[in-house]
Protein backbone atom coordinates (compact mmCIF):
# COMPACT_ATOMS: atom_id res chain seq x y z
CA UNK A 1 0.00 0.00 0.00
CA UNK A 2 1.22 3.44 -0.88
CA UNK A 3 0.66 5.88 1.97
CA UNK A 4 2.86 8.65 0.64
CA UNK A 5 1.40 12.11 0.35
CA UNK A 6 2.26 15.02 -1.90
CA UNK A 7 1.77 18.76 -1.73
CA UNK A 8 0.15 20.37 -4.76
CA UNK A 9 0.28 24.18 -4.83
CA UNK A 10 -1.50 26.53 -7.21
CA UNK A 11 -0.09 30.06 -7.11
CA UNK A 12 -2.32 32.80 -8.48
CA UNK A 13 -2.43 36.58 -8.60
CA UNK A 14 -5.00 36.88 -5.80
CA UNK A 15 -4.57 33.66 -3.82
CA UNK A 16 -2.40 30.60 -3.32
CA UNK A 17 -4.06 27.21 -2.83
CA UNK A 18 -2.26 24.23 -1.31
CA UNK A 19 -3.56 20.69 -1.00
CA UNK A 20 -2.28 17.49 0.54
CA UNK A 21 -2.98 14.79 -2.04
CA UNK A 22 -2.36 11.03 -2.02
CA UNK A 23 -0.97 8.93 -4.86
CA UNK A 24 -4.48 8.15 -6.11
CA UNK A 25 -5.22 11.84 -6.55
CA UNK A 26 -7.54 12.21 -3.57
CA UNK A 27 -7.43 15.64 -1.94
CA UNK A 28 -6.99 15.12 1.83
CA UNK A 29 -6.90 18.75 2.94
CA UNK A 30 -6.55 22.28 1.68
CA UNK A 31 -4.96 25.56 2.71
CA UNK A 32 -5.52 28.99 1.18
CA UNK A 33 -3.77 32.35 1.63
CA UNK A 34 -4.06 35.69 -0.11
CA UNK A 35 -1.37 36.92 -2.51
CA UNK A 36 -3.10 40.09 -3.74
CA UNK A 37 -1.20 42.48 -1.50
CA UNK A 38 2.25 40.93 -1.21
CA UNK A 39 4.97 43.53 -1.59
CA UNK A 40 8.06 41.46 -2.19
CA UNK A 41 9.46 37.98 -2.73
CA UNK A 42 9.82 37.18 0.97
CA UNK A 43 6.18 37.98 1.67
CA UNK A 44 5.05 35.94 -1.31
CA UNK A 45 7.14 32.91 -0.31
CA UNK A 46 5.82 33.36 3.25
CA UNK A 47 2.22 33.15 2.03
CA UNK A 48 2.95 30.06 -0.10
CA UNK A 49 4.55 28.29 2.85
CA UNK A 50 1.75 29.38 5.21
CA UNK A 51 -0.86 27.89 2.84
CA UNK A 52 1.16 24.65 2.64
CA UNK A 53 1.49 24.47 6.43
CA UNK A 54 -2.24 25.02 6.84
CA UNK A 55 -2.98 22.10 4.49
CA UNK A 56 -0.41 19.89 6.26
CA UNK A 57 -1.89 20.76 9.66
CA UNK A 58 -5.45 20.03 8.48
CA UNK A 59 -4.37 16.62 7.17
CA UNK A 60 -2.38 15.86 10.35
CA UNK A 61 0.75 15.43 8.23
CA UNK A 62 4.23 16.44 9.35
CA UNK A 63 6.43 18.14 6.72
CA UNK A 64 8.72 15.08 6.82
CA UNK A 65 5.88 12.85 5.55
CA UNK A 66 5.66 14.72 2.27
CA UNK A 67 7.33 12.81 -0.59
CA UNK A 68 7.26 15.66 -3.09
CA UNK A 69 6.03 19.17 -3.74
CA UNK A 70 4.70 20.56 -7.03
CA UNK A 71 3.73 24.13 -7.78
CA UNK A 72 2.19 25.93 -10.74
CA UNK A 73 3.05 29.63 -11.16
CA UNK A 74 1.39 32.26 -13.36
CA UNK A 75 4.26 33.05 -15.72
CA UNK A 76 7.04 31.50 -17.79
CA UNK A 77 9.12 28.98 -15.84
CA UNK A 78 12.62 27.56 -16.29
CA UNK A 79 11.57 24.04 -15.29
CA UNK A 80 15.15 22.72 -15.26
CA UNK A 81 16.17 25.15 -12.52
CA UNK A 82 12.76 25.57 -10.90
CA UNK A 83 12.80 29.32 -11.45
CA UNK A 84 9.80 31.49 -12.28
CA UNK A 85 11.13 34.09 -14.72
CA UNK A 86 8.39 36.68 -14.20
CA UNK A 87 4.75 36.91 -13.14
CA UNK A 88 2.78 39.77 -14.75
CA UNK A 89 0.16 39.67 -11.97
CA UNK A 90 2.60 39.27 -9.06
CA UNK A 91 5.41 41.69 -9.89
CA UNK A 92 8.14 40.47 -7.54
CA UNK A 93 10.64 39.65 -10.30
CA UNK A 94 12.43 36.38 -10.90
CA UNK A 95 11.76 33.79 -8.20
CA UNK A 96 13.81 30.68 -7.29
CA UNK A 97 10.75 28.82 -6.10
CA UNK A 98 12.22 25.34 -6.10
CA UNK A 99 15.12 26.14 -3.78
CA UNK A 100 12.89 28.26 -1.50
CA UNK A 101 10.28 25.51 -1.13
CA UNK A 102 12.76 22.64 -0.85
CA UNK A 103 14.47 24.45 2.04
CA UNK A 104 11.20 25.30 3.79
CA UNK A 105 9.36 22.02 3.27
CA UNK A 106 12.22 19.49 3.16
CA UNK A 107 11.04 17.62 0.07
CA UNK A 108 11.95 17.67 -3.63
CA UNK A 109 10.00 20.31 -5.52
CA UNK A 110 9.02 20.77 -9.17
CA UNK A 111 7.87 24.08 -10.65
CA UNK A 112 5.97 24.64 -13.89
CA UNK A 113 3.68 27.16 -15.54
CA UNK A 114 0.14 27.19 -14.07
CA UNK A 115 -1.57 26.35 -17.36
CA UNK A 116 0.75 23.41 -18.02
CA UNK A 117 0.00 22.26 -14.48
CA UNK A 118 -3.79 22.67 -14.97
CA UNK A 119 -3.55 20.61 -18.15
CA UNK A 120 -1.68 17.90 -16.24
CA UNK A 121 -4.43 17.93 -13.59
CA UNK A 122 -7.17 17.44 -16.18
CA UNK A 123 -5.08 14.70 -17.81
CA UNK A 124 -4.54 12.82 -14.54
CA UNK A 125 -7.89 13.16 -12.78
CA UNK A 126 -10.24 15.16 -15.04
CA UNK A 127 -11.50 15.36 -18.62
CA UNK A 128 -8.28 13.97 -20.13
CA UNK A 129 -8.42 10.64 -18.29
CA UNK A 130 -8.05 7.61 -20.54
CA UNK A 131 -6.10 9.42 -23.26
CA UNK A 132 -2.38 9.47 -23.92
CA UNK A 133 -2.41 12.76 -25.82
CA UNK A 134 -4.46 15.83 -25.09
CA UNK A 135 -4.36 19.59 -25.27
CA UNK A 136 -5.77 21.79 -22.51
CA UNK A 137 -7.02 25.24 -23.48
CA UNK A 138 -7.93 27.58 -20.62
CA UNK A 139 -9.93 30.68 -21.44
CA UNK A 140 -10.10 33.33 -18.73
CA UNK A 141 -8.55 36.78 -18.35
CA UNK A 142 -6.03 35.46 -20.86
CA UNK A 143 -5.98 32.30 -22.95
CA UNK A 144 -3.34 29.64 -22.32
CA UNK A 145 -2.76 26.00 -22.96
CA UNK A 146 -0.75 22.89 -22.27
CA UNK A 147 0.13 19.94 -24.48
CA UNK A 148 0.46 16.31 -23.41
CA UNK A 149 1.98 13.83 -25.83
CA UNK A 150 2.48 10.15 -24.95
CA UNK A 151 1.41 10.84 -21.37
CA UNK A 152 3.95 13.61 -20.77
CA UNK A 153 3.82 17.38 -20.81
CA UNK A 154 5.54 18.70 -23.90
CA UNK A 155 8.35 20.94 -22.64
CA UNK A 156 10.27 21.56 -25.85
CA UNK A 157 13.68 23.19 -25.91
CA UNK A 158 12.97 26.11 -23.58
CA UNK A 159 10.16 24.73 -21.41
CA UNK A 160 7.87 27.47 -22.74
CA UNK A 161 5.34 25.45 -24.74
CA UNK A 162 1.60 25.31 -25.26
CA UNK A 163 1.36 29.09 -25.68
CA UNK A 164 -1.84 28.63 -27.63
CA UNK A 165 -3.06 32.12 -26.74
CA UNK A 166 -0.31 33.59 -28.89
CA UNK A 167 -1.09 31.77 -32.13
CA UNK A 168 -1.34 34.73 -34.54
CA UNK A 169 -4.76 34.80 -36.19
CA UNK A 170 -4.67 38.35 -37.54
CA UNK A 171 -1.30 40.13 -37.80
CA UNK A 172 -3.03 43.51 -37.85
CA UNK A 173 -5.59 42.58 -35.19
CA UNK A 174 -6.12 44.07 -31.71
CA UNK A 175 -3.25 44.40 -29.26
CA UNK A 176 -2.59 41.34 -27.09
CA UNK A 177 -1.62 41.19 -23.40
CA UNK A 178 1.84 40.16 -24.63
CA UNK A 179 2.25 43.51 -26.40
CA UNK A 180 2.03 41.98 -29.89
CA UNK A 181 -0.94 42.03 -32.26
CA UNK A 182 -3.75 39.73 -33.32
CA UNK A 183 -2.94 36.75 -31.10
CA UNK A 184 -5.76 34.28 -30.32
CA UNK A 185 -5.87 35.71 -26.77
CA UNK A 186 -6.49 39.22 -28.14
CA UNK A 187 -9.53 37.83 -29.99
CA UNK A 188 -10.73 35.14 -27.61
CA UNK A 189 -10.45 35.71 -23.86
CA UNK A 190 -12.50 37.54 -21.22
CA UNK A 191 -10.32 40.60 -21.83
CA UNK A 192 -11.09 40.50 -25.56
CA UNK A 193 -14.81 40.03 -24.93
CA UNK A 194 -14.85 42.90 -22.44
CA UNK A 195 -13.09 45.19 -24.90
CA UNK A 196 -15.68 44.47 -27.59
CA UNK A 197 -18.53 45.27 -25.21
CA UNK A 198 -16.90 48.50 -24.04
CA UNK A 199 -16.54 49.63 -27.64
CA UNK A 200 -20.22 48.89 -28.31
CA UNK A 201 -21.17 50.86 -25.15
CA UNK A 202 -19.12 53.80 -26.37
CA UNK A 203 -20.94 53.62 -29.69
CA UNK A 204 -24.26 53.69 -27.85
CA UNK A 205 -25.36 50.15 -28.71
CA UNK A 206 -28.09 48.93 -26.34
CA UNK A 207 -27.31 45.76 -24.40
CA UNK A 208 -28.52 43.98 -21.27
CA UNK A 209 -24.84 43.72 -20.27
CA UNK A 210 -24.92 47.37 -19.32
CA UNK A 211 -27.76 46.93 -16.80
CA UNK A 212 -26.29 43.68 -15.50
CA UNK A 213 -23.01 45.37 -14.60
CA UNK A 214 -24.25 48.87 -13.76
CA UNK A 215 -22.21 50.09 -16.74
CA UNK A 216 -18.92 49.20 -15.03
CA UNK A 217 -16.66 47.32 -17.49
CA UNK A 218 -14.70 45.75 -14.60
CA UNK A 219 -17.87 43.89 -13.58
CA UNK A 220 -18.17 42.15 -16.95
CA UNK A 221 -17.47 38.66 -15.63
CA UNK A 222 -18.36 35.48 -17.49
CA UNK A 223 -21.54 35.16 -15.40
CA UNK A 224 -22.87 38.45 -16.84
CA UNK A 225 -22.42 37.09 -20.36
CA UNK A 226 -24.26 33.93 -19.28
CA UNK A 227 -27.22 35.95 -17.95
CA UNK A 228 -27.31 38.22 -21.00
CA UNK A 229 -27.33 35.19 -23.33
CA UNK A 230 -30.24 33.71 -21.40
CA UNK A 231 -32.07 37.02 -21.95
CA UNK A 232 -31.41 36.76 -25.70
CA UNK A 233 -29.15 39.83 -25.73
CA UNK A 234 -27.88 40.50 -29.25
CA UNK A 235 -24.46 41.95 -28.40
CA UNK A 236 -23.63 39.22 -25.85
CA UNK A 237 -24.67 36.54 -28.37
CA UNK A 238 -22.45 38.06 -31.05
CA UNK A 239 -19.43 38.51 -28.75
CA UNK A 240 -19.65 34.98 -27.36
CA UNK A 241 -20.08 33.55 -30.86
CA UNK A 242 -17.06 35.42 -32.26
CA UNK A 243 -14.94 34.36 -29.31
CA UNK A 244 -15.91 30.71 -29.94
CA UNK A 245 -15.22 31.01 -33.68
CA UNK A 246 -11.70 32.26 -32.95
CA UNK A 247 -11.15 29.46 -30.44
CA UNK A 248 -12.31 27.13 -33.23
CA UNK A 249 -9.56 28.46 -35.51
CA UNK A 250 -7.09 27.85 -32.68
CA UNK A 251 -8.38 24.28 -32.34
CA UNK A 252 -7.97 23.73 -36.10
CA UNK A 253 -4.28 24.62 -35.80
CA UNK A 254 -3.84 22.37 -32.76
CA UNK A 255 -5.44 19.44 -34.59
CA UNK A 256 -3.38 19.97 -37.75
CA UNK A 257 -0.16 20.12 -35.75
CA UNK A 258 -0.71 17.56 -33.03
CA UNK A 259 -3.72 15.31 -33.75
CA UNK A 260 -4.45 14.95 -30.01
CA UNK A 261 -7.06 12.44 -28.86
CA UNK A 262 -8.91 15.17 -26.98
CA UNK A 263 -8.97 18.94 -26.61
CA UNK A 264 -10.17 20.00 -23.16
CA UNK A 265 -11.53 23.53 -22.80
CA UNK A 266 -11.50 25.03 -19.30
CA UNK A 267 -11.15 28.34 -17.48
CA UNK A 268 -13.73 30.81 -16.18
CA UNK A 269 -15.16 31.77 -19.60
CA UNK A 270 -15.71 28.11 -20.50
CA UNK A 271 -17.16 27.22 -17.12
CA UNK A 272 -19.92 29.76 -17.77
CA UNK A 273 -20.31 29.44 -21.54
CA UNK A 274 -19.20 25.96 -22.70
CA UNK A 275 -22.77 25.02 -23.73
CA UNK A 276 -22.77 27.80 -26.33
CA UNK A 277 -19.11 27.77 -27.29
CA UNK A 278 -18.21 24.10 -27.71
CA UNK A 279 -20.73 23.38 -30.53
CA UNK A 280 -19.44 26.46 -32.41
CA UNK A 281 -15.84 25.30 -31.94
CA UNK A 282 -16.80 21.83 -33.19
CA UNK A 283 -18.49 23.40 -36.23
CA UNK A 284 -15.35 25.36 -37.17
CA UNK A 285 -13.21 22.24 -36.71
CA UNK A 286 -15.52 20.21 -38.97
CA UNK A 287 -15.49 22.96 -41.59
CA UNK A 288 -11.83 23.95 -41.57
CA UNK A 289 -9.75 20.85 -40.82
CA UNK A 290 -8.20 18.89 -43.66
CA UNK A 291 -10.30 15.90 -44.71
CA UNK A 292 -10.22 13.11 -42.16
CA UNK A 293 -7.78 14.74 -39.79
CA UNK A 294 -10.32 15.71 -37.11
CA UNK A 295 -12.02 12.33 -37.16
CA UNK A 296 -12.61 10.95 -33.68
CA UNK A 297 -10.91 13.88 -31.96
CA UNK A 298 -13.04 14.88 -29.00
CA UNK A 299 -13.66 18.45 -27.88
CA UNK A 300 -14.86 18.45 -24.28
CA UNK A 301 -15.25 20.77 -21.27
CA UNK A 302 -12.81 20.58 -18.37
CA UNK A 303 -14.04 18.76 -15.26
CA UNK A 304 -11.99 19.90 -12.31
CA UNK A 305 -12.50 23.66 -12.07
CA UNK A 306 -10.09 25.19 -9.55
CA UNK A 307 -8.85 21.76 -8.44
CA UNK A 308 -7.02 21.20 -11.75
CA UNK A 309 -4.15 23.34 -10.44
CA UNK A 310 -3.46 21.53 -7.16
CA UNK A 311 -4.01 18.09 -8.72
CA UNK A 312 -1.68 18.82 -11.63
CA UNK A 313 0.90 20.16 -9.18
CA UNK A 314 0.60 16.91 -7.19
CA UNK A 315 1.17 14.98 -10.44
CA UNK A 316 4.40 16.97 -10.90
CA UNK A 317 5.33 16.16 -7.30
CA UNK A 318 4.79 12.44 -7.87
CA UNK A 319 6.98 12.61 -10.97
CA UNK A 320 9.85 14.33 -9.17
CA UNK A 321 9.56 12.10 -6.07
CA UNK A 322 9.97 8.99 -8.23
CA UNK A 323 13.12 10.23 -9.97
ZN1 LIG B 1 -0.02 37.55 -27.61
Notes on the protein architecture:
By secondary structure, the protein is α/β, with parallel strands linked by helices. It has ten helices and twelve strands. The chain has a five-stranded mixed sheet with strand order 3-2-1-4-7. A hairpin with a 4-residue loop joins β2 and β3. The chain is globular and about 60 Å long. The protein binds zinc ion. Zinc ion (ZN) binds next to loops.
Unreliable sequence segments: none
* Sheet/helix structural class: alpha/beta
Query: How is the largest sheet built, in terms of strand order?
Result: 3-2-1-4-7
Q: Can you write the helix and strand succession as a string?
A: EEEHEEEHEHEEEHHHHHEHEH
Report helical residue fraction. Answer: 40-55%
Radius of gyration: 20 Å
Please give the number of β-strands: 12
Beta-strand content: 15-25%
Q: What distance lies between the first and last C-alpha atoms, to the nearest angstrom? A: 19 Å
For the report, how would you describe the main beta sheet? Answer: 5 strands, mixed
In this entry the ligands are: zinc ion
Instruction: Indicate the overall shape.
Output: globular
Compute the number of helices: 10
What is the mean predicted local confidence, pLDDT? 94
